[in-house]
Structure formats: C-alpha cells, structure tokens
Write a structure and sequence with these properties.
Bound molecules: NADPH dihydro-nicotinamide-adenine-dinucleotide phosphate, ligand LXAUTJHC
Strand content: 15-25%
Keywords: Carbohydrate metabolism, Glucose metabolism, NADP, Oxidoreductase
Number of domains: 2
Largest sheet: 10 strands, mixed
CATH topology of the largest domain: Dihydrodipicolinate Reductase, domain 2
Organism: Agrococcus jejuensis
Number of helices: 12
Distance between the termini: 38 Å
Mean pLDDT: 94
Helix content: 25-40%
CATH class of the largest domain: Alpha Beta
Number of strands: 19
EC number: 1.1.1.49
GO molecular function: glucose-6-phosphate dehydrogenase activity; NADP binding
GO biological process, one term: glucose metabolic process
C-alpha cells in the first residue's frame, strides 16, 4: 500500500457526487487502510469558503460511518478533514487552472474530474495548454464525453496530456461488490458456468430504478438524461461482465480485453422499437412530494430530457445470439429496484403428471445490499406433484469499502482494473448512438410517468420488483 503523500484535487467539489458518494467512499477507504497518506483539495466555481468546505467534508465522511457522528472518524480521516482546503475558481480557465495546480505540493497528484462531461473536456483543453504536473493521474467521471465523436476526441486529448496508464475513466459500478462478484459467481464454480449461454438463458434484465429524483443536479442531468447518465456507462459495464467470455486471469489486461470484445459485439437492433423513454410528472414518494421534472430549477422542458430509459441490446456472438439484454434505469420511481435478473429457459420437457409450473427459473443479483436469490422450480410442499418455486437466498460478501473507496484505492495503487479502457468508453457510445439519434429526431415518443409510480403504462419492464 502506497504511503506517498498524495493530493486528491477534486474539480466540481461542491457538486452532488463529491458529497454523496466520493467523500463517503474515501472515508471507508481510510477506515480500512489508515496508513494511506492523503490530502484533499476541493475546487469549484462557487466560493464555498474554507469553513463550509471543511464542514461538508466532515459531514460527508462521517455519513460513511452510518451514525453521522464526526467524532467517530478515525485518525487518518480526521487528519484529512483538518488539512483539507478549498479553492474557488474556474478550472476551464488556463490561468486559474495553472494557479490551482501550482498551489499543490505533493509526491503525487490525482486530478479528479467530478464535473459534467462538457466541462471536463474544457478543463482537459486548458490542461493541455498549461501542462499537467509530472506523474499526475487524471480520474475522469462518466459519461466519458457526450457522444462517440466527442469521446474519441477526448481520448486523443487526454492521451496527449498524460500516458494512458495515468488515465482512469471512472465507472463506480465496477467497484460495486455485486458487480465484481459476477466474476466469481460465473467463473469460479461448476454450477452456473455450463448454463451461462443462449441454450439455457432466455433473457437478461439489468435494472436500476431509483427513488431519488433530480436532487438539484439540473446543471449536469438535464443535458444528460437517463440514457447517457446510467445506460451508456454503468449498465453497459454490468452487461459486459454478465456477458464476457471467461478470461484467463482477472488482471487488468485480460479483463479489459474481454470487456472490449463483448462490447464490440453488442448493438441495438432497431433504435425506434428497442428503446423507450419517459419523464416523471409530479407525485409522492413515501412522504416526499416530488414536483414535475420540468418544474425543477434549471430544467429546460424544450430539451426533452428523459428520466427513465429502457434499451434492449443484443450481443451478436455464439454465446448470446438471440438473447435480449434489457437495460433500464429511472429516477423518482416508487420503489428501488437495482438488480440483474437472469431468466432461464423452460426445461426441454417436464414429465407429464406434474402441475403448477407457471414461472421460469431465474437468478436475481441484487446491487446494494449485495445478495442473490435463485428461484428454482421444485416439488410442492403440500403436494409433490404440484410444482412450485423455492427461493434460495445468499448474501454476497459485501466489502469494507463503498464503491468509490474501491475505485480510489485502485487509482492510488495504479491498478486500472476497475477503470474503463479508452476503447470500451467509445464502444458504449457506439452502442447507444442510434438510440440518441432516433430520440433527437423525435422518432420515439417521450412518455410520462408519475413520480412514485412504477413507470409508464404498458412498459413490460415495470414488473413488480423481483427478489
Ligand atoms: N451525483 C451522482 O450520483 C454521480 C455523479 N457522477 C458523475 O459526476 C459528474 C458530476 O455530477 P454531479 O456531481 O452529480 O453534478 P453537479 O451538477 O451536482 O456538480 C457538478 C459541479 O461542477 C461544477 N462546475 C461546473 N463548471 C465548473 C468549472 N468550470 N470549474 C469548476 N467547477 C465547475 C458545478 O458548479 P455549479 O453548480 O456552480 O455549476 C457543480 O458544483 C457527472 O459526470 C456525473 O455523471 C458519477 C456517479 C454518481
Ligand atoms: O452515476 C450515477 O450513479 C448514481 C447511482 O449510483 P448509486 O451508487 O448512488 O446507486 C445515479 O443516481 C446518478 O444519477 C448517476 O450520475
């Protein structure tokens, strides 16, 4: 474990990501690995002031300890809180950026782009002009770029600033335990591996319905929408791990080669019929009143931003030909549903004389909390000739680290295994581009759903949460 003095310079430090996920994730890392030496410098347009920033860091890090009590922070995390500082300024401006970089004195600098993608690109242009400090690591949040062309240009730009091994394209779903557990579950036992193909699997669903709504993020989200925000990045990465061929090892090269290969085989067959979009209207989630999406501050209704997207992807290879992968993610839904569901085919023949078989077997992998459930047809309890489904549940060993703790640990250790390689970032754009084009041309209607509901009427993926 490196004990070099590392400075994490967070650009976009007053945004949602920094407080809600990044800082709490770092707190879990420092709790588990207190010998790390880290200084955090926050930078953003808004002039928060040192006290407000330090309070934010303290509150966010304490939140990771579950009790909100800052007194519980370990010595390393407390040191990070005590030494952190904040700089207000525009990181897209070369002069301000240079001054910001010169104010940092450390052995190693990680520049974390917690910024909307178009702003990240402008900062990279400024960085190309002023130059990055020797050995600096660029950690760039998803979505990487705003389109396929943009991602290609951004790849070329960042590779001019630092070598590829100093570029970490972040996708924190690759730090989710359930997602990492897919590798062990698929490749380290003899039970599932032989069933993992088109002969046994009829359909795969990767679902990420959230109860959170816009949460003041219009500046980023209203130009992104659910497809770019969740499907283009996170859910395609999960698809890749569900679908990859067995790699020889799980080192960065083998794993990322396998991910690249499967993404290259993936496509949306018909962008007008295989993808749907919708936007929430006012409603209630628990005891929370949620306004109409278009009434939220900073939203421009004319952009037609979707808050729920569903896309069916096919993987054109021997293993998966004909198997639909349905990816869906929505905001302001009535219930959290964050899972991958593997639907198995019907058996070729069920002996005559059995009754009651009415649903196919399935494996449900729940993200957060990490668990799995196998819904397996078995003999009925009261009557052995009337079949029913038994549910076998298991906990998947959750780690000590939150996903952003995992991601940051891999950055600090220089291990790119949990980062997205340049080609994969581009492939993900290539897969969704036909859908983005069809939506831009208004070839697919923008449906509506009530905040707190299950989704627009008639969408098959609305189904009750499977557990
Ligand atoms: N929030 C989340 O749950 C997650 C977000 N992400 C990714 O993180 C990125 C940021 O998202 P999020 O935090 O939600 O968005 P926010 O809009 O909450 O935060 C972005 C921040 O960047 C600031 N900013 C804009 N322009 C500049 C600039 N020129 N110089 C310095 N700071 C600037 C914004 O300031 P101002 O508000 O004043 O414009 C704002 O504080 C996105 O790429 C998103 O995909 C990834 C995983 C989870
Ligand atoms: O990247 C993002 O992810 C979050 C969901 O991740 P989680 O770890 O908070 O479950 C999503 O809410 C956000 O819109 C998106 O930008």
């Amino acid at each position: 474990m490196a004990a070099d003095r590392t400075t994490l310079l967070i650009l976009g430090a007053s945004g949602d990501l920094t407080s809600r996920l990044l800082l709490p994730g770092i707190a879990t890392l420092l709790r588990a690995q207190p010998r790390r030496s880290l200084e955090i410098v926050g930078a953003d347009l808004r002039d928060l002031g040192q006290d407000e920033w330090r309070n934010r860091v303290q509150t966010a890090m304490a939140a990771a300890h579950g009790d909100g009590d800052a007194g519980e922070l370990g010595a390393t995390a407390q040191h990070v809180v005590d030494t952190t500082r904040y700089v207000a300024g525009d990181a897209t401006d070369p002069t301000s950026l240079q001054a910001l970089l010169e104010s940092v004195d450390c052995d190693r600098l990680v520049i974390y782009f917690a910024l909307p993608p178009h702003v990240s690109r402008m900062v990279c242009e400024a960085l190309a002009e002023v130059g990055a400090p020797d050995g600096a690591i660029l950690a760039i949040e998803k979505p990487f770029g705003s389109s396929l062309d943009d991602a290609r240009e951004l790849n070329a730009l960042v590779q001019r600033i630092v070598p590829e091994d100093q570029i970490f394209r972040i996708d924190h779903f690759l730090g989710l335990y359930t997602v990492l557990n897919l590798l062990g579950m698929r490749f380290a036992n003899r039970i599932l591996a032989p069933l993992w193909d088109r002969d046994s699997i009829a359909k795969v669903e990767i679902l990420y319905d959230e109860t959170v709504a816009l949460e003041g993020r219009a500046g980023y989200y209203d130009t992104a929408g659910a497809l770019r925000d969740m499907i283009q990045s996170h859910l395609l990465q999960v698809l890749a791990l569900v679908a990859i061929e067995p790699p020889a090892s799980i080192d960065a090269r083998d794993l990322r080669d396998a991910i690249g290969q499967v993404l290259r085989a993936a496509r949306v067959v018909d962008a007008t019929t295989d993808a749907r979009r919708a936007r929430y209207t006012a409603g209630t989630i628990g005891d929370r009143e949620v306004p109409d999406y278009v009434a939220e501050e900073g939203v421009d209704a004319k952009r037609g931003t979707e808050t729920l997207a569903e896309v069916t992807v096919h993987v054109d290879n021997q293993r998966w030909a004909g198997v639909p992968f349905v990816l869906r993610s929505g905001k302001a839904m009535g219930h959290i549903r964050k899972q991958a569901v593997i639907h198995f085919r019907e058996p070729a023949h069920v002996p005559r004389g059995f009754g009651g078989r009415n649903s196919a077997d399935r494996l449900v992998l729940d993200f957060r909390p990490d668990s799995f459930a196998i819904h397996l047809t078995t003999n009925g309890k009261g009557d052995p000739f009337t079949l029913e489904q038994s549910v076998l549940r298991g906990e998947l060993g959750g780690g000590q680290l939150e996903p952003y703790g995992e991601v940051l640990a891999s950055i600090l250790d220089g291990d790119p295994r949990l980062a997205v390689r340049a080609d994969a970032a581009e492939e993900c754009w290539r897969i969704v581009e036909p859908v983005l084009r069809a939506w831009k041309r208004d070839e697919v209607p923008l449906a509506e759903y009530r905040a707190g509901g299950v989704g627009p009427r008639g969408w098959r993926s609305n189904g009750a949460a499977t557990d």
